[in-house]
Amino acid sequence: MRRSIVSTLLISLALLAPHSQAQPIGEGVMADLDVYTGAQCEPEIAVVQMNIPIRYISHFPRSTGTQVRIRLRPLRVSALDADQLNERESRSPAYRRATLLREATFEGDIQGGPFLSLRFREKARFHIFQGHDYRSIWVVVSPASFAAGSPCQHSLSHDAQALP
After folding, report:
1. Which of 18, 38, 99, 119 has its CA 20 to 30 A from that of 67?
2. CA–CA–CA angle 22, 69, 37 (5° rounding)
3. Could you tell me which residues come within 8 angstroms of residue 104 by beta carbon, excluding any fewer than 6 positions away?
4. Pairing of strands 136-143, 44-50
5. Which of 123, 126, 84 shows the shortest CA–CA distance to 106?
């Protein structure tokens, strides 16, 4: 009798296991937006945290602009939350100090998406990376004014010349 109860319980758990992998998020697709700023002439690092696992596919423009659109692919979403992938939501940095990143917007309502659009306060250079946890996108951002003639460009080129 005890053996049949245990085996019935194990079989029912095995049947329910595929349904328990994607938990409902209930709070939207984006979890948080953190911006880490360094000293003058150091780039900012923006981390967009997601409530669902996502994969970075591509982005445009490639490295410079006032905004960038990042194409994402959701990896696992529960049936309860599938509708949230067709929504739009935004986050802004919580710092009082002005950052280059003005806003991050999840755009699930655009054909070919979903997309994560980042808008900057000025023209910026950026590099985009998939987070190792598949629940974040990391963006290294610096002003485009780091170009020729900028004091930051001078200090960066001086440091590069000092390297062997």
Report:
1. 38
2. 90
3. 30, 33, 46, 48, 90, 91, 92, 116, 117, 118, 119
4. antiparallel
5. 84
Half-sphere exposure (CA, 13 Å, Cβ side) for 158?
8
The mean pLDDT of 43-55, rounded to a whole number, is 95
Alpha helices in the chain, H assignment, sequence order? 2-16, 151-162
Report whether pLDDT(164) > 90: no
End-to-end CA distance of the chain: give it in Å, rounded.
Answer: 76
Amino acid identity for residue 143 in this structure: P
Amino acid at 29: V
Q: Is the pLDDT of residue 140 over 90?
A: yes
pLDDT at 51: 93
Look at domain 24-162 and name its CATH class. Answer: mainly beta
- CB-side neighbour CA atoms (13 Å) of 43: 16
Q: Where are the domains of the chain?
A: 24-162
Q: Cis peptide before 114, with omega less than 30 degrees from 0?
A: yes
Q: What is the DSSP string of 82-124?
A: GGGGG-EEEE----SS--SEEEEEEE-SSTT--EEEEEEEEEE
Residue 20 backbone phi and psi in degrees, to 5: -95, 0
pTM as predicted: 0.74
